[in-house]
């Protein structure tokens, strides 16, 4: 009898030439780029730790970290656990954008162990629990929001043949066929055990990063973001944080027991412009320095949170090497459309990036090059921001926005008739055939080469954009774009910018 948690493999590449997540990342990125990428599943690891602390045996099969290159391989790994541990009674799946892989695995589990209970958690499941429970009979429960307490209580109920109707945060089909959900409990993050680190040795061996979380949720509501949408669904008070001391204790433990010398802080929003969050980041640096911890780290921040260079210099002294910044787009109007107002109309994010780079801290850009109504001038401006960071991978030249089911963006595209397929991921088409052509040609150029070179891809990209401009000039749209900073070149950094 066992309890299992499963992350599907998240394959990439075209049908017929599928590759594992790890191989895909290694093909697209240099080791200098992916060393800071955290690929452990901290969510499943945290649920496993909590359940184990209550005496429940939990196994985790993470097809992504185990480097599976087919769902069949993940299925074999699940069967191996069942052979060793016994017939599973409860299987919990997680998913960001792998619903098709997950459905395939769920069908196998259901056909093999017809009395096992099958649950699904994470943002996508939370936001789409109604549709999932109505459409997929093999899935018994959708776990809403954070899973540590709810999954542990569910496991206790299932293993002891008790009813689950009192378990918090569980959506399920009621006897009359309707979907019903129990409210979630809000956990105190400092009371949770640290995540189980079963996957960390593999992650480090493959050259990726170990991670800690220090906050949950987000104060903002960008239209494309699952975190913001879940915050809205479950209540606006979902932004919470751990104490700085507890976080540094955990990092110290990872450094001591796993030899970790770099840690990715995997919060959606480690640093916000709110004075309390700026002060907390300063205390974090104080604590790392006070303990003399020889560790470097990165975190995610918004553009509006990286204005205080004194604070960033202090964090740099404590070990800050990279900041992931969701720049999104060079168009101010588009930032407003995404509800991502991290600059005012007269501010240039490139100026902030340059200032951060000059401190010796790399900026890893989150950019969205293409969306349904993108215009040539926006493509140029987004490229300018991308280049200001100094981060070079040609794959960034054909990023396109994803309309995750359940997000405001998905509903907006649906209402505007832009979706060509609405499940499991919202697929959309371009308003202009020129945009479609630029996107397709740049993608074919980059993916058609074994070792794609950024400079060549950039030239190709700009030539295609120029052709589009010649065929369909932008008239009167210049005001749309963010102003150009006086310095736009990326400063060299000490960490060996790729
Ligand atoms: C690290 C990370 C990654 C890593 C590892 C992913 C992973 N498997 O966790 C990598 C780099 C691989 C990655 C890739 C992607 N990511 Co990512 N990632 C993150 C990040 C920054 C941290 C994750 C984390 O550690 N969270 C902390 C842990 C404790 O929380 P958690 O994982 O959410 O789990 C809790 C609950 O969700 C829930 N839960 C989760 N699963 C389950 C399952 C069960 C059974 C139960 C009961 C509960 C449950 O309980 C957990 C404990 O409370 C998050 C942002 C964030 N802060 O969450 C984005 C985030 C999850 N990623 C996101 C995206 C979009 C992606 C990509 C699609 C990006 C891309 N275009 O390629 C890919 C998809 C990869 C894949 N197929 O899995 C989005 C998802 C948006 C959405 N609609 O849900 C997020 C939220 C960022 C954002 N704000 O937009 N990502
Ligand atoms: S600031 Fe980041 S995490 Fe928060 S809603 Fe926007 S994209 Fe999502």
Automatic annotation (TrEMBL):
Compositional bias of type Low complexity: which residue ranges?
485-498
Q: Where is this region: Disordered?
A: 477-498
Q: Quick check: keyword S-adenosyl-L-methionine in the entry?
A: yes
Gene Ontology terms, cellular component aspect?
cytosol
Q: Which residues form the Radical SAM core domain?
A: 204-450
User: Matching Pfam families, A to Z?
Assistant: B12-binding, Radical_SAM
Q: Which SUPFAM superfamilies match?
A: Radical SAM enzymes
Q: Which domain of life is it from?
A: Bacteria
Keywords, ordered alphabetically: Iron, Iron-sulfur, Metal-binding, Methyltransferase, S-adenosyl-L-methionine, Transferase
Q: Which cofactor does it need?
A: [4Fe-4S] cluster
- Which InterPro entries is this protein grouped with? Aldolase_TIM (IPR013785), BchE-like (IPR051198), Cobalamin-bd (IPR006158), Elp3/MiaA/NifB-like_rSAM (IPR006638), Methyltransferase_Class_B (IPR034466), rSAM (IPR007197), rSAM_sf (IPR058240)
Q: Which GO terms describe its molecular function?
A: 4 iron, 4 sulfur cluster binding; catalytic activity; cobalamin binding; metal ion binding
Residue ranges of domain B12-binding in the record: 25-165
Q: Does the keyword Acyltransferase apply?
A: no
- Protein name as catalogued: Radical SAM protein
Please name the source species.
Streptomyces mimosae
Lineage, opening ranks: Bacteria, Bacillati, Actinomycetota, Actinomycetes, Kitasatosporales
């Amino acid at each position: 009898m066992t309890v299992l948690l499963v992350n599907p493999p998240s394959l990439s590449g075209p049908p017929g030439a599928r590759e594992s997540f790890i191989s895909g990342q290694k093909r697209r990125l240099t080791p200098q780029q992916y060393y800071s990428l955290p690929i452990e599943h901290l969510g499943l690891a945290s649920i496993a730790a909590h359940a184990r602390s209550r005496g429940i045996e939990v196994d985790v099969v993470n097809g992504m970290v185990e480097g599976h290159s087919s769902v069949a391989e993940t299925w074999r790994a699940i069967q191996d656990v069942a052979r060793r541990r016994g017939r599973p009674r409860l299987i919990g799946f997680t998913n960001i954008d792998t619903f098709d892989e997950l459905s395939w695995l769920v069908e196998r589990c259901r056909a093999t162990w017809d009395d096992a209970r099958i649950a699904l958690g994470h943002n996508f499941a939370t936001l789409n629990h109604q549709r999932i429970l109505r459409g997929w009979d093999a899935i018994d429960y959708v776990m809403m929001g954070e899973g540590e307490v709810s999954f542990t209580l569910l496991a206790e109920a299932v293993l002891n043949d008790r009813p689950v109707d009192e378990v918090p945060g569980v959506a399920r089909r009621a006897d009359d066929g309707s979907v019903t959900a129990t409210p979630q409990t809000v956990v105190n993050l400092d009371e949770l055990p640290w995540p189980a680190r079963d996957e960390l040795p593999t992650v480090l061996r493959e050259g990726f990063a170990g991670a800690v979380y220090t906050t949950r949720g987000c104060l903002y509501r960008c239209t494309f973001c699952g975190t913001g949408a879940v915050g809205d669904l479950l209540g606006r008070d979902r932004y919470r944080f751990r104490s700085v001391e507890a976080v540094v204790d955990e990092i110290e433990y990872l450094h001591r027991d796993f030899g970790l010398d770099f840690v990715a802080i995997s919060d959606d929003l480690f640093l916000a412009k709110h004075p309390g969050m700026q002060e907390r980041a300063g205390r974090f640096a104080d604590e790392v320095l006070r303990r003399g911890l020889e560790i470097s780290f990165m975190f995610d921040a918004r553009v509006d949170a990286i204005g205080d260079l004194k604070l960033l210099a202090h964090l740099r002294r404590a070990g800050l090497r990279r900041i992931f910044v969701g720049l999104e787009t060079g168009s101010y109007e588009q930032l407003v459309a995404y509800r991502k107002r991290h600059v005012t109309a007269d501010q240039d994010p490139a100026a902030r990036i340059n200032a951060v780079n000059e401190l010796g801290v790399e900026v890893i850009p989150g950019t969205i090059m293409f969306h349904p109504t993108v215009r040539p001038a926006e493509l140029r401006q987004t490229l300018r921001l991308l280049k200001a960071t100094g981060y070079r991978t040609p794959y960034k030249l054909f990023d396109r926005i994803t309309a995750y089911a359940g997000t405001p963006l998905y509903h907006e595209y649906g209402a505007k008739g832009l979706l060509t397929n609405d499940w499991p991921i919202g697929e959309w088409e371009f308003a202009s055939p020129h945009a479609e052509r630029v996107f397709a040609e740049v993608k074919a150029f980059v993916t058609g080469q074994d070792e794609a070179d950024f400079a060549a891809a950039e030239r190709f990209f700009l030539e295609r954009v120029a052709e589009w401009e010649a065929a369909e000039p932008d008239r009167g749209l210049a005001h749309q774009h963010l102003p150009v900073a006086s310095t736009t070149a990326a400063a060299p950094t000490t960490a060996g910018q790729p």
